[in-house]
Specification:
It is built from 7 helices and 4 strands. It is elongated, with a radius of gyration of 19 Å. The chain is of the alpha+beta class. A 4-stranded mixed β-sheet has the order 2-1-3-4, covered by helices on one side. FE2/S2 (inorganic) cluster binds next to helix 5. Residues 89, 91-94, 130-134, 137, 139 line the site of FE2/S2 (inorganic) cluster.
């Protein structure tokens, strides 16, 4: 383990303490970048620049390698996620049935783009690939809730409102 820069302020943050203990418990970090990033995302909810730097400073993994992984794999996010995750399926069956209209309606209702998070932190909007229920297309998921046969996009603002409570 190397220590290239001071993280004194971070050591008052329990999340960094948890990440540091996790890193210290590892006997070897070579080939572990993916697992370390997964653990960091579990702790922080997302992976900001400072977390990449902290991992690089406490392992032998170059920050470029960490960024290469966190920006390549969709399971990682470098920006904060909303309290509720909206996924609109843009797989073929859903797309043919008008899923783009769902994306547009949600984006319009929340004033965000795909990949964006509302300023109140309630929602993040993402596009998904086939989620395995094509017979119910078009499909939108909010967290674990599935909204199937969503042909009436005018119903969307009311659906979203339920999650603000
Ligand atoms: S294409 Fe949307 S669920 Fe399969």
């Amino acid at each position: 383990m190397n220590q290239r820069s001071c993280h004194c302020d971070k050591m008052k943050d329990e999340r960094y303490l948890e990440l540091k203990s996790y890193l210290e418990a590892l006997t070897e970090t070579d080939g572990m970048a993916m697992q370390i990033l997964q653990e960091a995302q579990r702790i922080f909810g997302y992976l900001p620049l400072d977390v990449h730097k902290f991992i690089a400073d406490n392992t032998r993994i170059p920050i470029s390698e960490l960024f290469g992984i966190s920006t390549f794999y969709s399971q990682f996010s470098t920006s904060p996620k909303g309290k509720h995750q909206i996924s609109v399926c843009l797989g073929t069956a859903c797309y043919v049935k008008g899923a783009q209209k769902i994306v547009d309606k949600v984006a319009d209702a929340l004033d965000i783009k795909v990949g964006g998070t509302t300023t109140d932190g309630y929602f993040t909007l993402d596009a998904a690939r086939c989620i395995g229920c094509c017979g119910l297309s078009p499909v939108m998921m909010i967290d674990e809730d599935v909204y199937a046969n969503l042909l009436n996009v005018d119903a969307i603002p009311e659906i979203l409102e339920k999650y603000r409570a």
